[in-house]
Amino acid sequence: MVGSKVKVWFASLRGKSRYVSFLLTILLMYTDNSSRIGISLALLGGMVKKDCSDPNDEGEYCWSDGIQAYLIGAYFYGYALQFIPTIVAGKFGFNRVLRFSTLISAVIQCTFPAAVDVSPILAIVLQGLRGFVAGIFLSNSMACAHTWGLKTEGKMFISSVGIISYLGLGSGSFLFGLMTEYVGWRYFFYLNGATFAIVLGFMVLLMPDNPLDSRIMLEHEKGLFRQKQGTLASAEKKAIGEDGRKNKSGSICDVLSRVYVWSFCLYMFSNDYLFHTIFATSPFYLDNILHASTTFLSYLILSLAIVTAVATYFSSVIFVKLDTVVPWLPCRLCFLILPMVVRGAVSCAIPYTRNLISVVALLILSMISFGTQFSGSIMTVNYEMDPANSAVVVGIMNSVGQTSGFINPLLMALITGIDKQTPEYAAVYERRWSYFYLLNAGIALAAIVGVVVAWLMKPSEWRKHSLLEVQEKHSLLEVQEKHSLLEVQEKHSLLEV
Hints:
mainly alpha
């Protein structure tokens, strides 16, 4: 009975290999994001003692602020090196490296609670290793979009990756907080590791190294894939003659010689730094200054992630409409600069807003602005300026950007970490937090300046790649040909009648 149902389900996937690849890629991003920052809620919810000298403190471990900061950012120590697995995947195949990374992630998550019992240092090392192997996940989505020669659909796929990533971040952190509160923080890691294992199983079955070897790809889909590869190759040949930039995958030196890549690295660092402030370190501000509970923080993070996902969707809709009426460059600069202005202003306002509801409203405004990242902003612009090298550039700029994942909590510990015996401790502590948020505003300003300077220094780099223009022209011609064919068929039918 079960076997027949599995066969029916497997048969229903035939001819849908492309969408299965997209779905598994997105599901992998969801699973990875769900466990990135929830450790902050575990630390606040009883994993460690808030006061080691208090015999009534029910926390399990007595760790310093420094150890906690390292553990919060441990994943990002490895994730910041994601350009390495991205380059390796470019050599040996993305699907092959992807399966290996998923396997390592599953093993680490299942064994993490035991590692914590042995030593916090071992736990930090394991999470750093998981971040390193997970560096391939986002680059893979860009490679997947390029492999299928996606155009408008590719933009929607990239937006979907962002939406699901944010939902994973919110729902995972929410579940992490609730499980910490009611059943214990360990069980979330077991659940997350099991999810990685399940995704790995589907990848082994449905995502071979060569898409043409897929057991669910029928002949008509193989023909579609070959046609897209042929169209892509033809477009690349035409674009090579029209564009000064190479369309084939260039060397690392060639990529790093571009001014816009460095500005994108700075932008990505600022973008991710402000993100980690809201999701990883602001819970400590809300807990210690505004006395928010772990349960409240769990619901808040879930809500912020949903807001970000919804904002990503609507910004993608607005982005597609604006693309038809606004020239390419002004549209992209607007999507890069305006959201960063809003997020910088929010960082300035938070420490002077001592009301919990007002702070939550500001955080929501910031995350609405952040939602443009995958829809019109940094990810979209990177793909459009050089589709063939977009996965490599994402690996480089995201490596730089994700260093903020460990720099942010370390700066928080450095700026706000003061002795509780300090005279007027509460006032000094709150003032230190204002310094921390004002630093965030300065980092947002640096991102804006970086984009403007890169554009002024090398305006020739800031244009849509001719490869995409050739593809769009080719698609337009295909549509026109189909319309002409339909008109001929209609006239022929009318004559027959």
